[in-house]
Amino acid sequence: MKNLKSWIGKITCSVAVMGALAACEEDIFNQELYIKIFGLLCDDNNIYEMVHPFGEEGSERFVSVICGGSQPLEQDVTITLEVDGDSLLQVYNEREYALDTMQYAKVLDESRYEIPSLTGVMKAGQADQYLRFPITVKMDGLSPDTVYFIPLRIANVSSGDSINASTRSILYRPAMKNTYADQATAYTSKGYSRGFSLSGTLTNGAPMDIGVEKILYPVADNQVRVTIANYKSVDVNGNAVLSNIESYSVIVTIENGSVVSIEPYRKGSMTVEMLSPEKLETMIQESSFIKNYTDEELDKLYLGKYYRNYYNNTYRVENGRPCIFLCYRYQTSGAWTMVQERLRLNVVTTEEDTSEE
Fold first, then answer.
1. Residue 170 near residue 148, CB atoms below 8 Å
2. What's residue 89's pLDDT?
3. Of the ranges 105-109, 186-190, 232-236, 349-353, which one carries the lowest mean pLDDT score?
4. Coil/strand/helix, residue 196
5. Residues 67, 71, 75, 77, Cα dihedral to 10°
6. Is residue 274 within 8 Å of residue 259, measured between CB atoms?
7. How many alpha carbons lie under 13 Å from residue 249 in its C-beta half-sphere?
C-alpha cells in the first residue's frame, strides 16, 4: 500500500512538472524569439527581376519589403522607400562588365515607370509580414541590348526597428518577354542561302548551308529581332557583336501563327523582301536557269514544292519545339541573297526532337 501511494505521488509530481513545462513552452512561443528586421526582397546580388509584358499602358508588378521575426507586428509600421542613387548600379557594372563600359546597365528613365506611392503600412497582427509596392513599367521601345534597373532603397521604418544593411538597397530589373523569346533566347538556325544573278533571277548555283545558334530578342508583343543567314549577334564569349546587330539584323513580326513581315532592324542597312511559296514558284518560272527543272531537280537545290511549303514564313511547333520558318531575300549591296531557314527553340517543350530537317 505504501508503494502504491509512493507510485501515485510520483505520477502526480510528473504531471505537475509536465504541465509546468508545457506552460513554459507555450509562454516561450508566445514571445518574440528574434529581433524585428526589415529588408527588400531580392536575390544574392541584390537584384529583383520581374517580367513586364509589352503594351502602351505598361504592366504592373510589385516590389516587396519583408520583416523578420517569429511573431506578428504589435503595431502598424509605416515604411518609406526612395529611388536610390547609382552606387549599387556601379558595383553591378564593375562586377559584371569590368572595363567594358559599352555593356554597362543603365538606370531606367523615370518617364518609363510609375510607383504610385513610396510609402506603405505593414499592419499589426498581419500573419505574412511583407508589404508590396506596385510599380508600372512601359517596355515598348526599350532596347533588348541594354539592362535597365530602378535602384530602390528603404529610407525609413517608423517603428525604429532595424533595417537589414545587406538588403536595404536593391536593383529592380524589368525584364522583356513575349510568346517567342525571353530577354535573350537561343534558337538553332538550320537552312540554306543562295545568290541571285545580277539581273535578280534565281541561279542553279549550289546553296550554302546555314547552321548556327542565334539569339532572338523580344522587341514588342509580336516581334523578335534576329540576325540573318549565318551572322551572329554574340561572340563565343557571349559579348554582343554590334556590327552584326546594326547591319545584319531584321525584325520578324508574327500574327496568328504567320510571319507577316521581315524588316531591317536599322533602316538603310539593307533591303529585305519576304518570299511566299507562290512568289518563289513565280521566281523559278521566271529564271532562265531553272525554269524547266523537274521538281526532283529542284529538290536538289532545296527549291522543290516540299521545301517551298516547309520554309513558308510561319510560326509552329515541330516535334515539341517552337519553330519559326522563314523564307526571304536581302540585299546589302550589289546582288541579292536568298535565305530559307528554320529557327528552332533550343529547349524541348514536350518531347525530344529527333528530326533531321
1. no
2. 94
3. 349-353
4. strand
5. 0
6. yes
7. 25
Compute the average pLDDT of residues 297-309.
Answer: 94
Q: Tell me the one-letter amino acid at 215.
A: I
DSSP per-residue letters across 120-160: EEEPTT-SS-EEEEEEEE--TT--TTS-EEEEEEEEEETT-
Report pLDDT digits (tens) over 175-196: 999 999 998 899 999 999 998 8
Specify the residue for cell string 518531347.
351
Q: What is the separation of C-alpha 159 from the centre of its chain, rounded to a whole number of angstroms? A: 38
> pLDDT-derived band of residue 348, with 50, 70 and 90 as boundaries?
low
Q: What is the pLDDT of residues 45-93, one digit of tens each?
A: 999 999 999 998 999 999 999 998 778 888 999 999 999 877 899 999 9
The C-alpha atoms of residue 294 and residue 202 are separated, in whole angstroms, by 15
The whole-number pLDDT of residue 350 equals 46
- C-beta of residue 215 within 8 angstroms of C-beta of residue 189: no
H-run or E-run covering 24: helix 2-29
Long-range contacts formed by 344-350: CB under 8 A, 24+ apart: 344/187, 344/188, 344/189, 344/190, 344/318, 345/185, 345/186, 345/187, 345/321, 346/186, 346/187, 346/188, 346/213, 347/321, 348/320, 348/321, 349/317, 349/320, 349/321, 349/322, 350/317, 350/320
DSSP 25-68: HHHHHTS--S--EEEE---TTSEEEEE----TT-EEEEEEEEEE
- How far apart are the C-alpha atoms of 239 and 232, rounded to whole Å? 11
* 46 Rama class: left (phi>0) / alpha (psi -120 to 50) / beta: left
The one-letter amino acid code at 353 reads D
